[in-house]
Recover the amino acids of this structure.
């Protein structure tokens, strides 16, 4: 198992680790209860991109709260197949750990004309 190889796994379209993180964040559904509670925290998720480009062995490395942890696992499961990592010309499994921050959107400003 590798954490860095000559040619790192890529999502369709490339973009490296930044694109992978962005793809996960776009797929995370902020849990309703966490949103109501305005929960703020981080989930560290690990997963392997296998030699065939499929995602395997998804695990929470450090969780925040169960509903947020589950939302991150689901998001990783939804990622498309990768172009696999390569070392010495052959496909190899590569392990990633990503940090996903949960922070509810800012509350909209109060409408100052509503009280008039």
């Amino acid at each position: 198992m590798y954490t860095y190889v000559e040619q790192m796994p890529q999502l369709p379209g490339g973009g490296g680790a930044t694109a992978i993180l962005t793809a996960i964040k776009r797929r995370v559904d902020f849990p309703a209860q966490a949103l109501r509670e305005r929960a703020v925290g981080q989930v560290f998720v690990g997963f392997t991109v296998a030699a065939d480009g499929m995602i395997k062995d998804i695990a929470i490395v450090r969780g925040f709260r169960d509903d947020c942890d589950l939302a991150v696992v689901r998001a990783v499961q939804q990622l498309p197949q990768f172009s696999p990592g390569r070392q010495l010309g052959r496909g190899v499994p590569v392990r990633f750990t990503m940090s996903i921050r949960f922070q509810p959107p800012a509350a909209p400003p109060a409408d100052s004309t509503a009280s008039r």
Remarks:
- The longest strand covers residues 41-49.
- DSSP finds three helices and five strands in the chain.
- Residues 4 and 17 are 11 Å apart (CA to CA).
- The mean pLDDT is 92.
